[in-house]
Amino acid sequence: MTDPSLTAGTRDTQTVTKDGAPITRTIEGVRIRSTPHHVDHRGSVFEIYEDLNDYWDEPIIYAYQFSVRPGQVKGWGLHERKRDRYTIISGEVILFLYDSRADSPTHGQSMRLVLSDRGVRQVTIPQFVWHLSVNVSSLEAYLINFPTEAYHHESPDRLLLPWDAPEIPVDVRAHLPIT
Length: 179
Description:
The chain is globular. It has a domain at 72-164: Jelly Rolls, CATH 2.60.120. The protein has a 5-stranded antiparallel sheet with strand order 1-9-6-11-4, with no helix packed on it. With 179 residues, the protein is mostly beta strands. It has one helix spanning 4-8; strands at 31-33, 37-40, 43-46, 64-68, 73-78, 84-90, 92-99, 110-116, 122-125, 129-135, 141-145, 159-160. Belongs to the dTDP-4-dehydrorhamnose 3,5-epimerase family. Pfam families: dTDP_sugar_isom (PF00908). This is dTDP-4-dehydrorhamnose 3,5-epimerase family protein.
């Protein structure tokens, strides 16, 4: 006789290749990067910016630090002119992305990415891609943004929607930590 839990269980699905590369399709223009990280008996150093290269293809002109408190959600937000370039300093955040660009080959596609001080540390988010951050750790998460344009206080380049906006077909609630 088979235990009922075995027939009720669902088979786990592949999320990464044998080499650790994600198998999910990336939204057009979204770039992710695990930075060089050096650890020794004194502590650690990770490189954020090492001059213009394949990842940093535009100079840094503005930067700011922001945080997401444990169990909190920031977003949805979208920029029309600038790209965001996040670097996580500490903590763990699930970043949800949704491509609203009508002319994009990935229009209507969503993407889920974990930013962590132990894994993927950097992400570039193109214009017109909605993004939302959820802190899934018990500590405040700290990130630095290096947007491609300075913030304009008198006319912010940002559209906002509530985290549960029906216009974005992403079930954020399904990914929130169980309390």
